[in-house]
Amino acid sequence: MGRKRALLFAIPPLVLILVTVALKLAHPERASWPVDVLGVFGLAVVLPLTALIIGTSVLGAEIDDGSIVHLLATPVSRSLVVAVKYAVATVLTMVFVAIPELLAGLIATGGATKLALGLFVGALAGSVMYNAVFVMISVLTTRAIAVGLLYALIWEGVLANLVPGARLLSIGQYSLGIANSIAHNPGLNAALSPSTAVVLGLLVTAAALVVAARRLASFSIKGEPA
């Protein structure tokens, strides 16, 4: 939060709320606009973008500037380091995405509707899953932002929407499936059932964290055996 890039956290959710307020005041003829804005823009754009910035920063920034050496020199389990960094990233993403998503939903639908609550829960779940993947990417490569952006744009943005099989490995689809378990809105275009989304989401999250922990455990500092 002390870094300049922290200012980027607030931009996407702020845009989401401003767009929602503007449309609410404009009274557009298309009644499905809350689903389009909150589902497509909120869960498919704001959530992964914010999670990318936060998830790749909690460890990636320290790896880039070399300060990770001081952390690795302490008698702290590498798995614990990953777990704590991941927890911080997840909570921050929930604050900067899930809560604004709920506020935008309340504004767009006029109250605590199933759509507003469903998208809120979907954003919470997406925060948990996306950050696991982005923390893993930040440990695997020094080009975490670029790799994460390619993943979000190509896999989540294109392939998951065009290739049916790719949806089974899409965090965006997991989030929509979980959201739709409450919203029950066909406009969300959720391709996976809630149970499938939850199970696959847990598997992907756990696998990403295990890979991140093992990769960090392979890091060594001068004088320390690999």
Give structural notes.
The protein is built from 9 helices and no strands. With 226 residues, it is mostly helical. α6 (114-140) runs parallel beside α9 (194-217). It starts with 10 loop residues before the first helix and ends in a 9-residue tail after the last helix. The model is unreliable at 222-226 (pLDDT under 50).
Q: What is the topology?
A:
Blueprint: H1 11-26, H2 33-55, H3 60-65, H4 68-72, H5 78-109, H6 114-140, H7 144-162, H8 171-183, H9 194-217
Helix pairs in contact: 1-2, 1-5, 2-5, 2-6, 2-7, 5-6, 5-9, 6-7, 6-8, 6-9, 8-9
Distance between the termini: 31 Å
What level of helicity do the residues show? over 70%
Helices and strands, in N-to-C order?
A: HHHHHHHHH
Which outline best applies? globular
Determine the structural class based on helices, strands and strand pairing. Answer: mainly alpha
Strand content: under 5%
Largest sheet: none
Number of helices: 9
Low-pLDDT segments, ≥5 res: 222-226
Number of strands: 0
* Rg, nearest Å: 18 Å
What number is the mean pLDDT?
86
Q: Features of this protein?
A:
226 residues; mainly alpha; disordered C terminus
Short description:
This protein is mainly alpha-helical and 226 residues long. It contains 9 helices and no strands. Mean pLDDT is 86; it is low at 222-226.
